[in-house]
Amino acid sequence: MLAGPLRRARRFVTGSVRVAMAGRSSPPGTPRHTNRLGSQRSPYLLQHAHNPVDWYPWGQEAFDKAKKENKPIFLSVGYSTCHWCHVMEEESFKNKEIGEILNQNFVSIKVDREERPDVDKVYMAFVQATSGGGGWPMSVWLTPDLKPFVGGTYFPPEDGVHRVGFRTVLLRIAEQWKENKDALLENSQKILEALLRRSEIRVRGQESPPSPQAVLATCFQQLSSSYDEEYGGFSKSPKFPTPVNLNFLFTYWALHRTTPEGAQALQMALRTLKMMAHGGIHDHIGQGFHRYSTDQHWHVPHFEKMLYDQGQLAATYSRAFQISGDEFFADIARDILLYVSRDLSDQAGGFYSAEDADSYPTTTSTEKREGAFCVWAAEEIRALLPDPVEGATEGTTLADVFMQHYGVKETGNVSPMQDPHEELKGKNVLTVRCSPELTAQRLGLEPGRVRELLRDGGHRLGTARAQRPRPQQDTKVLTAWNGAGAGRWEQLRVPVSPLAFPRWPGEEGRQSHRLCLQQLLLLPAHHLPPGAAWDAVPVSPRACRKARASPWERERNCNKAPLAPRMVPGSVGGCCAPLPAAGQALPMPLLWQHLSRSSSGPSFWHGQETPAEEHLLPLPTHLLLNLFLLRERKTN
Prior knowledge:
Layout: H1 3-9, E1 17-19, H2 43-47, E2 56-57, H3 60-69, E3 73-78, H4 83-93, H5 96-105, E4 107-112, H6 117-131, E5 138-142, E6 148-152, H7 166-179, H8 181-199, H9 212-226, H10 243-255, H11 260-278, E7 292-293, E8 301-302, E9 305-306, H12 307-324, H13 327-343, E10 354-355, E11 358-359, E12 369-370, H14 378-384, H15 398-406, H16 436-443, H17 447-465, E13 473-474, E14 476-478, H18 479-482, H19 486-492, H20 506-522, H21 541-549, H22 551-558, E15 568-569, E16 576-577, H23 588-597, H24 621-635
Parallel strand pairs: 2-4, 3-4
Antiparallel strand pairs: 1-14, 3-5, 5-6, 7-8, 9-10, 10-13, 11-12, 15-16
């Protein structure tokens, strides 16, 4: 189990990673020290290029040094937009004394988990099995032949009340390596053997494996037992979006629509999506979703934004819209796509990996703070939104409406328990505290008027926020992440199409359309499920060039998509099936066949007797899918 991945982890595959280096600023001043990471391409490794630690990238040079000098390896894995990775660097890896301990006793290797997911996966399995948890930064100590024997995540630099400090851990491991090396190696071998036994799939006697129905029922029971009835999600804290769980619940509902369990599955998924969208994990000013919430209420997040979260959540919110017909979910899908197309798009094509959690609060600041780009002081909002609101209670300003709706407090709305480094003291993370209807009732306004005021306030705050120093972007363009989960489509044999997004007018619509086109151009055909290529026909090079160069001409042609329901090919035996009834979703296999067969572009059913034109997303699926199929057949 581990031997194969360990061997594969040694190999470095360059074809799946591209880094856009333009625009990356150099650190001010002349660094005193530059280690071996200075020649790397990973933004995360480059962040550590001037540490006093003698870092090595993952590779044979480091392995040979460890064997030659008989030293254990200290492996540190993280990513460039990880807040706690930054904290550990500032506290420990920039500390000269700790650097000396590492350099004298260990061979230190730094790995970008986004660049080397194979390495990360192997050692994260060890950390989770031996410590009961995991995360980044990941800290693992290895033998020279790469077998782990101690692991953890973040360590504070010095001993505290509840945690052993990093300095102490290093000194104890160095001492044990010198004095009890054989015992460490024996213990490492026992742990690996236990992991191998746990990973084996065994059948007891003549017992048959569980049926698919039993597996589905077990998964549903596990999710329902951990479901948070009040705030949605499946744990207390921290809370991650976990779109894979929500997609499972949608599938379970589709298979059990007439049962109480099916109704419960749908309710769990839709409520979780709504609570996430209302919470601070959702960026109400700059769009998109942050990495995860540190509390039960989806309120205070870690502020990094990851491309793979945006891609999965956009598809999940779109699916919620298709199932429920609730425009709220369509708005959130649009919100996510706008963020990605505006802030994570590379001009040469493709999308960046992530945006950092930390940034400088002002242009004159010398120290970064987590969430500085996203949080607000009450006085800032009052200064930006001073306008009196006509028709409201006397003295009510636009700031009052905005602060009432988003839970803004004069002293800040972040609990000290969620802010251990006091970086958010006196600040507010915007989170929807009540509906527009309730806000309107409290202020004596009409709900429609409140929505207009909130939009106006959001635009003004967005303009002001654009003047702040932006967080750093991780400009790696990763094939897997750009595929928006394409690997799972092949595994599940049910494509979660990146095309199933609502269409809306104006510049936002053009940006989202461009995003979908780019996603389609990045979608490898070998990730499509069987049957998706039935309509493939040869495409001339001239047509391919035209497909890439004239998206707006394709859009005009696709706008002719018919609005009336019609028969589409069924998924079994070549039969035909009608589009679903009002309020139901188009099953994904039918949707995909409809996309690949329709010459005029896809239409999506959204619970209306006749779909409106704004619900149609025109996409040139025929030409682009065929282009991929031809290209993949030549290269594979």
